[in-house]
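Sequence in, structure out. Go.
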Amino acid sequence: MLLENIFGFNNTQGWGLKTISASWQPYDFVALRDFLSPNGPVMQTVYRLLVENIYRFEFPLKCLPWPSRCLIDEGAIPVLYMNKLQFLTNGQAADYILLNAFEYYLFHFSYYLVNAQHLRAGSYNWNTPTDALYIALVEEYMNYFLPAEGTGVPPIRTASTPLPSSPINSSKASYSSFQGSPFGSPKSREASPFSLRSFMRSGSQQQQQTPTTVEQSGGNQQETWRSETFLQIVAEMWLNQNSLETAQRYGFSPGSNTENVLPCQDHVKVIRMLVKHVHYFTNSVRPENISSLHQCHYGSYWDGFKRSAMSQEIQKKLYSFLKHSFLRWPLDYSFRLVLETWLSYVQPWRYFGGKDGESPTHKQETVQDRAVDAVWQQFVTDNLLFFTVLFQLFLPRVFRTDLSHPRNTYMLFRVCKVFSQMGLNTLIEQGMRLVNR
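Output:
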């Protein structure tokens, strides 16, 4: 009841987290931010319920992304929901999933951003995370559960903390056995012209395992399962609203029982925050005697999770998210939000730093005229669809846009500037040769 009241669930108004601003309501902003912070009273209650490991909470199936609901109806249960679905006597899935306290909180928190009820109510027009309470919490959760510095998430302050089942395969070998990319071996990449497609096919074959990620390092407990769970849930709720595979199967005809979700501007801004932060998170790995930051090796479990976070949880869903937006976003200047999200993803070499307590999403991006180093060849090859298909989708938009308007012209300038970086075209051409062998 408390979470439903906070996040405005089941047609309740909620506490207006997207409308509370630090400049207009400073007292409410600080009080609620402390109340909902990663170490605040709400999260401490969540952890106490988690420790007892006997409570499960119902989250409505209708609130899950439409592609996931379609797969569940067909019996192809996504890995995230394998141990959460309940089945009736006739074999059909119940209209809810059962979650532990931590998952239940994160599902409510992430659903708040895409809840159509709150989209109609509007939100504060924010430009920095401190402008709106919900955005400040998003940034605080990313810094806490995906810290660019340190060796993991701070341990739960309890005497004994059982580990709930995680949707992610957390065997240490699952991160260290990849050869050059978390998409699989070079042989598997040769089987398809794009490694992203190989990953799409292999995703349904992942097996769920109970995580064993508690390690001892200097007496501090590392609980990577919370970082894994956080990243997978926000990626599911924020990026999986429109699946290309599901759209191709069912279409978006007006009379069909389908959903076509065009993200709001707040949604796209948060996605860009997530992309930039995960780039910082991945690039914070200190590699030892390897040729690429995205090349896995036998290191610590936490470093392995960092390297695979973007490619395992973000890449496929982000590609669907961006492609859908490229095809359906209005031909106006608001498209720049989608454009900058795309350009942020294809330039991971810009995102380093974020230490000494400074938020990575606040840190000034490094803009340099030097050539893109060959160390990024693997990233470009594994993300070739972002550099080729999305660029091809951008061109028709340019032809249909009024380029006499300076703001529209600036979008074209931004794309030209990114793709004209010295060395980038060479990496793209080399990547195309590799996948076409």
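Check: The longest strand covers residues 93-99. The chain has 19 helices and five strands.
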